[in-house]
Design a protein that fits this description.
18% strand; 179 residues; alpha/beta; 7 helices
Length: 179
C-alpha cells in the first residue's frame, strides 16, 4: 500500500462516528463475497450473508451476482445499476459506516467502472451526510492489472478522488473495512 493509501486507512480507522456501525459488502460475484465473509468472521465480526440474513445492527455481505439479482439483467460486473442503487440505499441506513465493494477490470467487465461508481459514491456520501451528518466510508477491492483496457491507474485515481480507499488485494480491503 502506498503512502497516500496508508494515510487514508489511518484516517478511516481513527475517524469519529464509525464505532458501533456496520460494514455492508456489495459484491459483483460469489468468490470475493464469500472470501470477505470468511475474513470478516475470522476477524470477529458477526456477518450475515445476502440481504435476507442481515443481523440487526450487524455486518453483511451481499453477492449481487446471484440469481436473485441477475434475472432479466446483465451481470453486475457489466451493469453497475443494482450495486449503485444498493450503495445509495446503504448510505441511508444509519447503522452502516463502511461499504466494501469489488471492482473487476479486464475483458468481459464494464468498460469504465468509475463512470458508474464514482457518481454513486458521491451521492451515497451526500445521503449519509444529509441523514444526520453521518460519515460513510468506502473500501474498494480493485482486481486488475495495468494492461487491462479500463486503465487500472485511472480507475484507482477516480475512486480515491471520492475519498474511497482502494486496495489491490481483496483480503487487504476486507481487513481495512474491519479496522
Amino acid at each position: 500500500i502506498d503512502r497516500t493509501a496508508r494515510q487514508q486507512i489511518e484516517t478511516l480507522a481513527a475517524g469519529p462516528g464509525l464505532k458501533g456501525r456496520c460494514i455492508r459488502g456489495l459484491y459483483s460475484g460469489g468468490t470475493l463475497s464469500y472470501e470477505s465473509l470468511f475474513i470478516l468472521r475470522y476477524l470477529g465480526h458477526q456477518v450475515g450473508f445476502d440481504a435476507e440474513a442481515i443481523p440487526a445492527g450487524g455486518d453483511s455481505v451481499i453477492d449481487m451476482g446471484g440469481d436473485r439479482y441477475t434475472v432479466g439483467r446483465p451481470h453486475p460486473m457489466i451493469d453497475f445499476r443494482a450495486r449503485c442503487e444498493s450503495l445509495i440505499q446503504a448510505a441511508g441506513d444509519s447503522e452502516v459506516g463502511v461499504v466494501l465493494l469489488d471492482v473487476i477490470l479486464g475483458y468481459g467487465s464494464h468498460p469504465d467502472p468509475a463512470s458508474e461508481l464514482v457518481p454513486a459514491l458521491l451521492e451515497a456520501q451526500t445521503v449519509a451526510s444529509d441523514g444526520g451528518g453521518r460519515r460513510l466510508d468506502c473500501v474498494v477491492a480493485m482486481c486488475g492489472s495495468p494492461s487491462d483496457p479500463q486503465g487500472l491507474q485511472q480507475q484507482q485515481k477516480a475512486m480515491t478522488d471520492t475519498g474511497a480507499v482502494v486496495a489491490r488485494s481483496h483480503a487487504m480491503a476486507a481487513r481495512i473495512a474491519s479496522a
